[in-house]
C-alpha cells in the first residue's frame, strides 16, 4: 500500500526557502579567484521562496530573497534541503516590481 501524500503548508509568518547552489569559486572585483573552500562568516545568500504562511506580507512563492543562512532551521523534503525562517529575518527581495528598490539589479 502506498504512503499518503501530505502538502506542506507554512504557518503564521514562516517562509520556506530553497537555497541557491553556489557555483563554487568566486571572483573578487579585482579579479582574484576565491576558492569554494573559503567561507565568510557573515555572508548573506540568495534563495527562492517556496512557501509562505498566511501572515507573510512582503514575499510570495517564486521571489528571490537575501538572508543569512546560519541561524535558520533546515528541513529535508523529498531529498531537497530547505530553510525555514520568519519573514522578518529576510534582508532583501529581488523583484521585477521596482516600487521601493535600490537601483541595483541582479
Automatic annotation (TrEMBL):
Transmembrane segments: none annotated. The keyword Chaperone applies. One of its GO terms (molecular function) is protein folding chaperone. The keyword Nucleus does not apply. Pfam families: Cpn10. Keywords: Chaperone. Together with the chaperonin GroEL, plays an essential role in assisting protein folding. The GroEL-GroES system forms a nano-cage that allows encapsulation of the non-native substrate proteins and provides a physical environment optimized to promote and accelerate protein folding. GroES binds to the apical surface of the GroEL ring, thereby capping the opening of the GroEL channel. Heptamer of 7 subunits arranged in a ring. Belongs to the GroES chaperonin family. This is 10 kDa chaperonin. It comes from Actinomadura decatromicini. The lineage of its organism: Bacteria, Bacillati, Actinomycetota, Actinomycetes, Streptosporangiales.
Amino acid at each position: 500500500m502506498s504512503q499518503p501524500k501530505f502538502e506542506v503548508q507554512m504557518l503564521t509568518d514562516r517562509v520556506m526557502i530553497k537555497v541557491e547552489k553556489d557555483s563554487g569559486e568566486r571572483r573578487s572585483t579585482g579579479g582574484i579567484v576565491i576558492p569554494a573552500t573559503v567561507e565568510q562568516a557573515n555572508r548573506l545568500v540568495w534563495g527562492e521562496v517556496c512557501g509562505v504562511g498566511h501572515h507573510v506580507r512582503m514575499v510570495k512563492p517564486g521571489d528571490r530573497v537575501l538572508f543569512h543562512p546560519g541561524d535558520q532551521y533546515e528541513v529535508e523534503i523529498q531529498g531537497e534541503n530547505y530553510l525555514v525562517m520568519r519573514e522578518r529575518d529576510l534582508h532583501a527581495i529581488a523583484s521585477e516590481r521596482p516600487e521601493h528598490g535600490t537601483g541595483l539589479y541582479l
